[in-house]
Amino acid sequence: MLNDFSFISHSAAALSFGLLAILVASRYLRRDADRVLLLTSLVSVLWAGALAAQSLWGQPSFFVRYLLELLRDAAWIALLFALLRDFFQSTAIVGRLRRILGVATVTLLVSLLAFGVLEYAFDLDLLNGKTKVVGQIALSLMGLSMVEQIWRNSQSFGRSSIKYTCIGIAAMFVFDFFMYADALLFGQVSEALWNARGLVNAALVPLFAINTINTLKQPVDFQLSRSAVLHAGTLMFAGSYLMILAVGGYYVRALGGAWGEALQVLFLTVALTFLVTLLTSGRVRARLMVFISQNFFDYKYDYREEWLKMTRELANFVDAPPLPERVIRILSGLVESNAGALWIRDEQGAYVLKTAINLRPPRFTTIDGDCELCRFLQNQEWIIDLHEYRADPVRYNLLEMPDSITRVSGGWLVIPLYLGNDLYGVALIGNPYAPVVLNWENFDLIKVVARQTCNLLAQADAQSRLSRAMQFEAVSKASAFLVHDLKTLIAQLSLLVTNAPRHRNNPAFIDDMIHTTDHAVRKMSNLVDHIRKPKNDTDSATILDLRDIVAELAEHYSRRYPAPHFIPAPSPAFVEADPDQLRSILGNLIQNAQDATPPDGEITLTLKNARDNVVLFIQDTGTGMAEAFINTQLFKPFESTKGLTGMGIGAYQAREYVRKVGGNIDVTSEPGVGSCFSVRFPLARTNEELEETEQKDPTILITEPDPSAK
User: Fold this and answer.
1) How many CB atoms lie within 10 A of CB 659?
2) 146-149 contacts at long range (C-beta below 8 A, 24 or more positions apart)
């Protein structure tokens, strides 16, 4: 038994995956990917155990082993789909990959399983051995395609959270691809590759374990300066490593005896996987960059690259990741770290935690704006090293640190963020990948970057405040219009109450009172309906004769001096508008003319038809207005010549509505002489006019009006 290399290899794989399943089941089952990894580990245990039992006792049968092989591949592909679901919820890749790769993979798996069941149950040899090998190759390629898509479409700062899992799965599928491709080429499965397969899978299990354990402290990849030196050094290291690997593989095969070829495959596979893992490790790159900066450059940073990198990060207006998270990523990247937290000052002067990356924030996440730390940072722009602070508090004048910072495990640097000369925020950076010795160059760069990022944070906060202010302004504007209409109704009702004692026995006054009260009730009902369910001004628009509306208004306002004199147009003046709105804005203009004209003055309402338009001239002999007032203040909201008694929105509201229905208002005035408001409306064509036009010109086709043209 101990002389059977296949048994040892697959037994080791079964034991390794069993330990992985115990690790995942006992501590890590928060995400879908963790639960699928547990299922995958259990299926891999069954698969490896079946191959080990076959090497020892010749059982189970080929069909069971083939079925477990397909289930194993399906489980690893399901894990890749779980990674897509957990890490790419906000991108379009999820839907596209699930539709294409999902359908293709499921179809392939179901087909292979169906043909296998038919062959086992009914002895139907539908697939020969080579076709089955091609199916296994296709499954391997499906898995590699998914790994490549996940890695290529993931954001750089999030790759570290799935790096080891992707490397392990890719290594498995690459090995299977070469093994089955070799079998397809030579007509049989290589015994060396088959025997080494179990140990290769067992050697990859630590990658899944490390990735699972590190889910709570996912590192962040970032762009490194001195890229040319780094890449050149990496290339030289990789070349030297491969040369040593080739020599080692030769001696392993030469000294391995009967197991030489299998041991060589195992040695090469494990060594190459280790090289890929090493080259993609952020910790190794960080240590290499510290070494390069200390020994090959006068300055620690390539300031051009650092500035361009920061500019690219801050110029990204997409809120993924959010701006505070990007600021922490920039600051932590300057000192080879991957963790941090950010507090921003709120409206009450306290500093509230906005984001925390790879750090466990304390229970209380607010820093008092009057604490000793904030006063200290307000007076002097210091970067506080918490390691130095704990070793020698006297160096920082026995500064008392708030619990929100001291109780954060893994905290290192406290960086103040200034907006001008005011402390706007506080950033906490976690411990670095590799030991970093800070000097004046680090501190100067951190201070400059902190001020630049703080400006952007303040700008984003100002934009948010402006958006809220605009929303409140819209609410206030609507309220002002409603109050203006209510003020007009109150004035009418107050006039009735004032005149009631003198005219209570006058039947004409009683009729007028009923009419005015009815108008006020309808107006207030419309206002209440509008507040409950706002609607567009054009929802209740109808075609009406402007002559009737103006005549009605002239009669209504004739009870007050000077009474308006109406000169109607000789022909109908049909316009399309809301009757209540039209009465309100024209009545407001007439009332303004009466307010500006003495009782012995004159107000004339003249209605004239023009080509495709009808114009209402409202002329008065009142106080008049200066040209500067007309140009800058007349149609500006909340600007009034009536002092505290007027709200200054009547003229503005009138012009806005007339413009909505396609017209406009023009004003001419002269102080001491009077004013003339020219209210122009587009003429509306009635059904009778359209029929007359058709009779005069039969070639004109009458169609239903387009609602969008109103």
Assistant:
1) 11
2) 146/77, 146/80, 146/81, 146/84, 146/97, 146/101, 147/80, 147/173, 149/93, 149/97, 149/101
CB 68 within 8 A of CB 74: no
* CA atoms lying within 13 Å on the CB side of residue 689: 9
So what's the pLDDT on residue 3? 57
Q: What amino acid is encoded at 581 in this protein?
A: Q
Candidates 175, 173, 158; CA nearest to 93 is 158
Determine which helix (DSSP H) or strand (DSSP E) holds 428, and give its type and residue range: strand 422-430
- The amino acid at residue 412 is W
Q: What is the pLDDT of residue 504?
A: 75
Q: Name the nearest CA neighbour of 52 among 1, 128, 123.
A: 1
379 close to 402: Cβ distance less than 8 angstroms = no
* CB contact at 8 A, 432 and 410: no
Tokens of 37: 């990894």
**What is the pLDDT, as a whole number, of residue 34?**
80
**pLDDT value of position 681:** 92
Backbone angles phi, psi at 178, to 5 degrees: -65, -35
What is the SS3 assignment for 254?
Answer: helix
Question: What radius of gyration, in Å, describes the C-alpha atoms of the chain?
Answer: 41
Q: Which of 600, 523, 598 is nearest to 556 (CA)?
A: 523
DSSP codes, 503-535: HTT-HHHHHHHHHHHHHHHHHHHHHHHHHHS--
Q: Are 442 and 335 in contact (CB under 8 A)?
A: yes
Residue 172 tokens, joined: 């498995």
523-527-533 Cα angle (round to 5): 140
What is the C-alpha to C-alpha distance for residues 518 and 535, in angstroms, rounded to an integer? 23
Average confidence (pLDDT) per 10 residues, the chain, 710 residues: 74 90 78 83 90 82 82 86 63 55 73 71 66 82 80 59 82 87 81 87 87 56 45 61 62 61 70 74 66 57 65 64 84 85 87 86 80 87 87 84 85 89 90 77 82 83 73 60 69 77 79 77 71 55 88 85 89 87 86 88 90 90 87 69 50 84 90 91 71 47 36
Ramachandran quadrant class, 357 (left: phi over 0; alpha: psi -120 to 50; beta: rest): beta
Q: What is the largest CA-CA distance in the chain?
A: 130
DSSP class of residue 558 equals G
Please give the pLDDT value at position 254.
62
> Bridge partners of 610?
613
Rounded Cα distance, 572 and 583, in Å: 18
Q: What is the DSSP string of 344-391?
A: EE-TTS-EEEEEEESS---S--EE-TTSHHHHHHHHS---EEHHHHHH
What is the distance between the alpha carbons of residues 617 and 586, in angstroms, rounded to a whole number? 11
**Short-list 421, 505, 476, CA closest to 638:** 476
How many CA atoms lie less than 13 Å away from 232 in the CB half-sphere?
5
pLDDT of res. 618: 93
Instruction: Quote the CA–CA distance of 195 and 7 in Å, as a whole number.
Output: 8
CA torsion, points 538, 540, 541, 543, in degrees to nearest 10? 170
Structure tokens at 47: 């698969």
Q: Write the CB contacts of 267 (distance below 8 Å, at least 6 apart in sequence).
A: 248, 249, 252
pLDDT at residue 679 in the model: 92
